[in-house]
Amino acid sequence: MAFNNDKAIYLQIADRLSDEILAGVYKAFDRIPSVREYAATLGVNANTAVKAYDQLAQEGIIFNKRGLGYFVAEDAQRHIKQTRRQTFLKTVLPEFARQMKLLDISWEELKEAVASVQ
């Protein structure tokens, strides 16, 4: 995984695991890879992966069954979507709209561009 400097690595790992949950790689109550397995897969220190798992557990996205590992929470997808939607609407969209206005991008151009991505 290529990491960027804009965000702490453990948060990028938490985002990646959240993306995998949204994509259905891991469904509700599925066991996810152990901290060590996931750290090895991503080529990071296990302590960094622990921080990511702790973050997701605090958010209620995953939970730990002692001695068995981490599992996806029942409403993890809903929670991730809700949180990300709020972030998008409050942070990303205002800047996106500002850039559209500065660059004279019409809503029609935007719709065409979005349609070509799908």
TrEMBL record:
<feature type="domain" description="HTH gntR-type">
    <location>
        <begin position="7"/>
        <end position="75"/>
    </location>
</feature>
<dbReference type="Pfam" id="PF00392">
    <property type="entry name" value="GntR"/>
</dbReference>
<dbReference type="InterPro" id="IPR036388">
    <property type="entry name" value="WH-like_DNA-bd_sf"/>
</dbReference>
<protein>
    <submittedName>
        <fullName>GntR family transcriptional regulator</fullName>
    </submittedName>
</protein>
<dbReference type="InterPro" id="IPR036390">
    <property type="entry name" value="WH_DNA-bd_sf"/>
</dbReference>
<dbReference type="GO" id="GO:0003677">
    <property type="term" value="F:DNA binding"/>
</dbReference>
<dbReference type="GO" id="GO:0003700">
    <property type="term" value="F:DNA-binding transcription factor activity"/>
</dbReference>
<keyword id="KW-0804">Transcription</keyword>
<keyword id="KW-0805">Transcription regulation</keyword>
<dbReference type="InterPro" id="IPR000524">
    <property type="entry name" value="Tscrpt_reg_HTH_GntR"/>
</dbReference>
<keyword id="KW-0238">DNA-binding</keyword>
